[in-house]
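Handout, section B. The chain below has 553 residues.
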Amino acid sequence: MIKSLHIENIAVIEKTDIDFKDGFNVLTGETGAGKSIIIDAINAVLGERTSKDLIRAGCDKAIVSALFCDLSIEAKNQLLENGFELDVDGNLLITRTLTLSGGSIKVNGRPATSTVLKEVAKNLINIHGQHDNQKLLDPDNYYIYLDMIAENNNLLDEYYSEFKHFNSVRRELNSQETDEGEKQRRIDILQYQIKELEDADLSIGETDEIKRKLSIAENYEKTLSALNDAQYCLGGGESADGAISLVRNAQKFIDSAKNDELSSFSDKLAEVFAELQTLDADIRAFADSDEYRDLDAEKLRERLDTLHRLMLKYGDDEQKMLTFLENARNELEQIVCSDKRIEELSLELDASTERLVSLGEKLTASRVAAADKFSRQVSDVLCDLDMPNVKFVVNVNRQKYTRHGCDAVEFLISANAGESVKPLHKIASGGELSRTMLAIKSVLADKDDVDTLIFDEIDTGISGRAADKVGLQLQRVSDSRQVICVTHLAQIAAYAENHLLIEKSVLDSRTYTNVVSLDYEQQIREIARIMSGTELTEKLYNSAKELLDRSKK
């Protein structure tokens, strides 16, 4: 449950700390005091999208932090799955900072994203407000309620897995069952591409090697002349000695001096002589090589043009072209063998259809059973909410198979005696919708593992005795869950175990909001204000006290 909420610089709230308790917590206050801002702050700390407009005017950042304690097993597991742990006291602290340029989120001191925060927070708080009435008016959401009653999680997972498999097989089968003309055209294209690439006899690195050889071939005559001149310089000729002979002679002159101090010169000349001989041999071998002598520049250019042409069609290097060739061979094999594959897929589609239908029927059966139980339970709660003549019926009808099953669920209601039931989304008034939503949430309260339920002005459209019944029902729900309710009705506020007043004040032309927990006497006065809004009189005070005392019995 949420233990405390700290807010800084959110709209009209400069700074406030709110302590929530177990059981039934109520928030009241004058219009514009900031009740909705409290809900906005809680939404922010749960990872919902926020706007920089939420930051108090004149401030560059806002902070919301919430402390949670006594977390459920599911909430703890969700934390661990996302890489977070509880603090040493077993608590969870979520802090969200909003700035004009962005913001940050921390979960127990560690940075987190809003996506991760939503995952962590989904087992902490459920907020139900007037927008939930829109969900209540959307029949596409009704199956969710029945699945919660029936505890269909495992069956839904099994059904959805088979539904995905069914669609996957069907898509592949449809792609295989191409018309024969299209299939033959594709075979012809693949065969042509495969033959063209196979005839090219590609090898990785061939393009670079051809470019190197072409450079040699195109300059071969000039290269050969340079090599011959180099050989002459090294080996000499009939009219002159070359470098090799000259170095050898230099060594002989040194040796003839028979001076030991010159021996190092002789050794170095010997090394140079040996290196020159090796170099001369290498140059001669290169010049005499058949590999380079037989290079045909024209043929090299033709081969390079062929490779460039293929690269434009199949990839910009040999590896990509060979990959294209392999893929083309595989596709051709699949098409050629498609008849066999079609037969296999057809059998698998039949088997998957049978499994899907069986799972769909199980899902329908569980929902039909849940519908009867759910309609009775919701009707009972609605009777307690001052709708004694209500008829609430849940119909489950078959429809086409979707990812959620093959059922269309319909909620029908008659709020008055003698009237036939009609679709809820067509006839219910605001007050009836509010009470119906509360009844549904009451029935489902024990079907999820969220410890805190927040009701934001769920009392819209009701008053008097109905409001008293709503307050009593919220108190009953709070026996097993922490309940926080924003209300403008005295009858509901009177049932609170922890009554929080949102006060607004103006100082130096700035609006400030503060939240205080009311004691018994303060609660009487606030209930009296809600009841009348006029100056407190003894009669009004006594009426408020009577209402408060009666709700505590």
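Note. Residues 1-124+450-518 form a domain with the Rossmann fold fold (CATH 3.40.50.300). Compare this with the example in section A.
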